[in-house]
Design a protein that fits this description.
By secondary structure, this protein is of the alpha+beta class. About 50% of the residues lie in helices and about 20% in strands.
């Protein structure tokens, strides 16, 4: 009798991964469900590569599945990747105590795994990867019942059923029929099964470098997407973890919900407009290990864009989401570490959540730059669609983000692909105004050289005044020496912070009351109006609507025009400025 052991299993996944890597581009191009964001190939490839890189080869079938399933949960990306990870975990739980299995036992395990997958999905949709896995599982059972016991023959026969099931997906889902494509995730699973056959046929496979595979999108899709963010979290489950309770809680925040559960960890996948609330809720169910938030609507808009240029900035630039979304501006998040958990600024955390957490933790939050790898991946994705990227970074004298942007750009700057990095010498609302100006210039169809020239001129005329309600948070974050901070808190000092011409932080004055700070800012703005005048201005705040509205009324009258926008300050800035902060930024004429 033939058996499948752990080494066989590892090679089955290895061969399946190879096929998905080879066809990643095609899987991306036909990806129209659940949203047409052209990333199913990337997500499945990432999931399978995590299995290859993190799992340990073990002859014991169940033990091998243990490392494979955990690796899958850690590496899973996207709807298809999380479903595949749950498929692996279903096999793991069904294989308890099995050092090796017959093809009959394997077929039964796959059938149980299907139940496990369906139980993890809030609203299972037929005509997808789910259907193909289910049909393949049923065919395995049927073929074994016909006394076909050779492993190779069973897999070959079941593969034919899976291919038929794949073709039928375009008849089961209207969106697939409309575009005359099969489901991308389902095709990925069939490619995985093809790899299993290749292993048992003793076919040779080549090593494929994930990073070297060229991806180009040839298809464009314009389907309506209700929820903006594809959100995922890997969580170390607490002892009281209740999957049903978690599902009921998360369902109200979006759709495409999947909860993939391993032994001690679980991964959630959901499409939502409020990723920060999802992560706030997840903290009640365990310790968050990793987070992922992808802007699906932006990905679709950029993929379908007819432009050859796009604007990028970092999340320190305070500019409303409405403008970012309307103008398809890419914003790369700064990282915040709060109570040992890493968050994405403006995506997986907001100021209310931030300061609620600060009140409960003894260790003050810190910030860190996006990694070079993260920025390189973003550049790579954008350069599939655009010839030029215009990047506006927070002042190089405040953060190393400008350096990260520049280092990452060095790998891509060729004759036909240009990445232009502008050191804004600004932050917060003044940096945001420069980003908006760049967008306006782009809409006016100015040449890239002219846009850069005008930005270089404008940044010399840009100013920001940040009015702190208290010196407390600047002291806690280390921006102000403790001795100075203690004295400042005791006497009720309210500092005004700004940047000098080199983009370095400076103290610009202080007062002991809200009215005192307002008088000083009014005096500064009047001085500007009496000289060159102000071309544009914006206002930001941290949980201080009343003072924000007061400033809006005062400075609209003084400057003679409405602000370009008002918005919340970045959480990465708020940890230094604190609750109650209001800032005004402007560009002189």
């Amino acid at each position: 009798m033939e058996y499948i052991n752990g080494k066989d299993l590892y090679q089955m996944f290895n061969y399946g991964s190879y096929n998905i890597l080879k066809e990643r581009k095609k899987l991306n191009d036909i990806n129209v469900f659940p949203v047409p964001d052209n990333d199913t190939g990337n997500n499945l490839a990432s999931t399978l590569q995590a299995i290859q890189q993190k799992s340990v080869v073990d002859e014991n079938f169940h033990d091998a599945l243990g490392t494979i399933s955990e690796s899958a949960l850690y590496g899973a990306r996207g709807n298809s990747g999380v479903i595949f990870a749950q498929f692996c975990n279903g096999l793991r739980f069904a294989s308890e105590g099995k050092a090796q299995v017959t093809i009959k036992e394997f077929a039964e395990m796959v059938s149980k795994s299907v139940e496990y997958i369906y139980d993890s999905i809030s609203n299972p949709v037929e005509g997808t990867m789910l259907t193909v896995i289910k049909d393949w599982a049923n065919s395995l059972i049927d073929i074994v019942k016909k006394n076909v016991t050779t492993i190779k023959r069973v897999f070959e026969s079941a593969f034919q059923y899976a291919k038929k099931s794949l073709e039928l997906t375009k008849e089961k889902l209207q969106i697939l029929k409309k575009h005359n494509v099969v489901d991308s995730g389902a095709m990925g699973f069939v490619l995985f099964l093809k790899g299993i056959n290749s292993y048992y046929n003793k076919e040779a496979i080549e090593e494929v470098d994930y990073e070297e595979i060229e991806i180009t999108h040839t298809d464009t899709h314009d389907e309506f997407v209700e929820f903006r963010y594809c959100t995922e979290g890997l969580v170390q489950a607490n002892k009281s973890f209740n999957k049903t309770e978690l599902r009921n809680m998360l369902e109200k925040y979006g759709d495409s919900l999947i909860i993939a559960k391993g032994l001690n960890i679980f991964r959630i996948h959901i499409h939502t407009n409020n990723p920060e609330i999802v992560f706030e809720e997840l903290r009640n169910y365990g310790k968050i290990i990793t987070q992922k938030v992808d802007n699906m609507k932006l990905d679709i808009a950029l993929t379908n864009s007819k432009r050859t240029r796009v604007i990028l900035t970092d999340s320190i630039a305070d500019i409303p989401k409405e403008i970012l979304h309307k103008e398809n501006i890419v914003q790369i998040p700064i990282n915040l570490t709060v109570d040992g958990i890493d968050y994405f600024d403006k995506l997986s955390i907001n100021n209310k959540i931030l300061f609620d957490l600060i009140a409960k933790t003894s260790e003050y939050p810190t910030t860190s730059m996006p990694s070079v790898k993260y920025v390189e991946n973003m550049y790579k994705r954008l350069l599939e669609t655009f010839d030029e990227l215009i990047v506006i970074a927070v002042s190089s004298n405040l953060s190393g983000t400008y350096r990260i942007f520049t280092e990452a750009a060095n790998k891509f700057n060729e004759e036909d692909k240009k990445i232009h990095i502008v050191d804004s010498l600004s932050n917060s609302v003044s940096q945001g105004l420069l980003v908006k100006k760049a967008s306006d210039l782009l809409n006016d169809n100015l040449s890239t050289d002219k846009i850069i020239e005008k930005l270089e001129e404008a940044k010399k005329k840009t100013k920001v005044f940040v009015c702190l309600n208290t010196i407390k948070y600047a002291t806690m974050s280390g921006r102000v020496p403790k001795v100075v901070g203690k004295i400042g808190e005791f006497i009720g000092m309210r500092p005004i912070m700004s940047l000098n011409e080199e983009g370095k932080g400076i103290g610009f004055g202080f007062a002991f009351s809200k009215n005192g700070i307002t008088k000083k800012i009014k005096k500064l703005i009047k001085k500007e109006m009496d000289s060159d005048g102000i071309e544009s201005f914006g206002l930001v705040h941290c949980m201080n609507d009343s003072l924000l509205n007061e400033y809006k009324e005062i400075f609209t009258e003084m400057i003679g025009k409405e602000p370009e926008y008002v918005t919340e300050v970045s959480s990465a800035t708020a940890i230094h400025s604190g609750i109650g902060t209001v800032a005004i930024g402007y560009i002189r004429k």
